[in-house]
Amino acid sequence: METIKNYFFSDMGVMLGRSMRHIFRSLDTIITVTIMPIAMMLLFVYVLGGAIQTGTSNYVDYLLPGILLIAIANSVGYTSYRLFTDVQRGIFERFNSMPIARSAALWGHVLTSLVSNAISLVVIILVALLMGFRSPAGILSWLAVAGILALFSLTLTWIAAIAGLSAKSVDGAGVIAYPIHFLPLISSAFVPTRTMPSGVRAFAEYQPVTPIVETIRALLSNQPVGNEIWIALAWCVGISCIAYIFAMRVYKKRG
């Protein structure tokens, strides 16, 4: 068992290195994923922020959690595209014919998504600091934020994996990003849900992104998180497990 685990992790490391090399050879992917959320942050803070009442003195502090989630959502289309490309080129079939762990290639893409998202999020936070973002949170709160963002990224990556492995065209692989983009927009990421019409408010309050945003916002402002953190974790873990099961089924059918 120990030998099998060692082979799996070493094979997964090789596949991670392969996928990361593709990323660094095409930095426009990370740049695109990072620039769009930064542009949205600049737009909302400097153009629309003065007209939005959130009860906070610094709108960028309120806005940042939602922007981070949008950055992650923006990246899943590229993850799906890279998986689709490997499927179309027969890369997975070649890997499966080699003496390596069968799921290592898929996990390589998943871990690449986590690493590239981490890079993008760090850049966005640095820009937010230049825009006036300040947080009294301690190291444990920041680690909790990092953990939630990583879990959210993992959840969306497994959803993207299903689309990338089962899509029939490039457009079909990338379309998964569009509906995911709407979730942060129709949540408490930009404005308090109490300002929304009743029907929209009900959707915003009971969809996955709002408790995740509220948890991150509370952690960064050093406020009690309440039950929101457990709701956020339940959403992420539940969706991630379901998406993982379906992604692995599709992947095995491809092999």
UniProtKB/TrEMBL annotation:
ABC transmembrane type-2 domain boundaries: 28-254
Annotated transmembrane regions: 27-50, 62-84, 105-133, 139-165, 172-191, 229-251
Pfam family, any one: ABC2_membrane
Location(s), subcellular: Cell membrane; Membrane
Membrane topology, record value: Multi-pass membrane protein
One cellular component (GO) term of this entry: ATP-binding cassette (ABC) transporter complex
Keyword Transcription regulation listed: no
Record keywords, A-Z: Cell membrane, Membrane, Transmembrane, Transmembrane helix, Transport
One GO MF term attached to the UniProt entry: ABC-type transporter activity
Family: Belongs to the ABC-2 integral membrane protein family.
Protein name: Transport permease protein
UniProt lineage: Bacteria, Pseudomonadati, Bacteroidota, Chitinophagia, Chitinophagales
